[in-house]
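Justification of computing resources. Each target in the renewal requires a structure prediction run like the one illustrated here; the chain below, 466 residues long, is used simply to show the kind of job we budget for.
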Amino acid sequence: VDGILTWKLDRLSRNPIDAGRVQWLLQQGTIAKIVTPDSTYSPDDNAIIFALESGMANQYIRELSKSIRRGVKSKLEKGDWPNFAPLGYLNKDKKIAIDEDKSPYIRKAFELYSRGTISVKDLSDKLYEEGFRSRSGKKYYKSKVHKILGNPFYYGIMFIHGEYYVGNNKPLISKELFDRVQLVLSGKHHSKKQKHHFAYRGLMQCEKCECGLTATKKKGHVYYYCTNGKGKCDQHKKYLREEKIESLFADSLQKFDFDEEFVEIMYLASLEKKKSSQSYKENVSHSLSERLNAVATKRERLLEGFCSDVIAKEVYTAKEMDLKKEEANIKNQIKKSESESINELATLEQQKKVFLTASTLHKKFLAGKTADKTNLLKTVLWNATLENEKIAQLSLNRPYDIIAEVDDLSDITKLRRGRDSPDAVAYEYKLRILLPSPNITKHGLSSVFCNIEERKGFEPSSPVKG
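Resulting structure tokens:
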């Protein structure tokens, strides 16, 4: 080599090994000379000067590397992502913003895969058909989709360099949905390509052996039965016709029927008490803080045990990782609790819509076509287990799981659970209608609360009608 032109020696090497190789090539004459704006280095020059300047350059790189790592860690601790934004997000003004074009595909990917009825490859094909493509128009293949489904960034947690951090990015999905997807990815639910379409396959499991229920068509009728994958179950001998399955699901949806007029009263009363949830928020914040302190205490004790050689390094590393993850999740919840600005009126509207929608599920199911019934069940139902030709357990999506826990859907106390929530508010609103005077003894108030549902023939005032 006749010569090398470079700005500084530190441009030629990033570590002592490369610096030594360059110096050796120069001393051997393989490189005739190295020229910088300040100096010229030739084979006959003092090797100490070259080595000193190379060492200084190497040290500068080491310090720079430390500084960069420290800056990245500081940025992560503040909730900022230091790299390119994951799919579904964009780097905008040094922040992470939602990509309005791709984010709907990310949400749909999680929702579809969480049902356990589609493979990652089929999911990749489906998303491609619906327009989910790279900037160059190429398909995101199975490996990329699999990586997306396992990334906690989408529910607000950043995982990098083996650490968990709470992100400032707006989540695309809930943690519950992410956890369900992880169950499917881990093999708890097996995704198989379906050769035939059966309306309710993939929604049911056997209560005894936990195997899925499959379906077959015989003599014009569709039958469902346990696959008996573990070879120990007697339930696979019992075949249920699709009409019977529909009847079981229809009966289970009856539990959502309740008085729509009562929903309206609850909604109107809640408008007057929209600040009543403050006490609940404070309790939640206090509870989360206590949980965070408990995790910090556990980490301290774990470290003490490790330093005292009571706990092995492998155990310490595994437990420390779990505690850090738990700590990040709690911090994420605290951050949401403190920073979210809730539009209470909009929230009340959404609650009212949920209750009204739930009250019509049974009617819609009975009146709908088979495809409509399937879609309705997928909206409400996460999974159902059957035993002896009956539904043993129902696992429902939110908020239907909360509503279904209540035996008497007219009892809003159980529905809302809370002294200051719309249960008490609704009764107070009724009291204002029934009683001309707000002055009443505790005993009298108790009597009215006990008998209020039995009072008949009163005409609601105009605010209730409104």
